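Aim 2, interim progress. The first record below pairs a target sequence with its structure tokens.
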Amino acid sequence: MKTIYTARTKTTGGRKGHAKSIDDGPIDMNLSVPKAMGGDDGDGANPEQFFGAAYSACFGGAVELVARQHNVDIGEDFFVEAHVSIGKTEEDDLQLAVILDTYLPNVNDKSVGEKIVNKAHEICPFSRATRDNIDITLNLLLDE
């Protein structure tokens, strides 16, 4: 791989600690453990929220790229919403699962929307990194 960019982030204290981006500082926040995982549900973010934000942003970029390559106007208000779940496998190991809901407001043809979302899943770096490692569900949201 020829590196284009490297982000550096440091977390102290694990899930109850503090995360900060090292080079330029836009991430500088406390972390909290959700009540569902035995925490106090404090005012901080958690790794699943970070992962969801990062994955949905990256996937959205892939959606834009695919749409542009196929001359499809997806609309400026398109979005990708990530639902990141953490659970246990049959072996009692922790595991992630992700649902990506993609809304393309200017795409009225379901088959066109599905092609864009599926192709984005093929090229998105986060999708490629998680392929065959976690369950990913892709949903295309349509206006009724």
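The second target in this work package is listed in the same format:
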Amino acid sequence: MSRTPIAIAVGLVAFTAYAAVVVAIGDRLRGAHWLVELAYFAVVGFVWTYPALRLITWAAKRPNT
């Protein structure tokens, strides 16, 4: 079985959950200094790339046959 459908399903669920958490925390930061908001969104904008890269790498591997 191909790993691609599993990776797509996991990626969609995980990214949706991550976005919901990021937005919920971001709402609490409203009214904070603009540098705090900028730093927060810059960090969370890049943090998701590491697990996404790992998931894509896993999906692209050939299963042992």
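The mean pLDDT is 93. This observation will shape the mutagenesis plan for the next reporting period.
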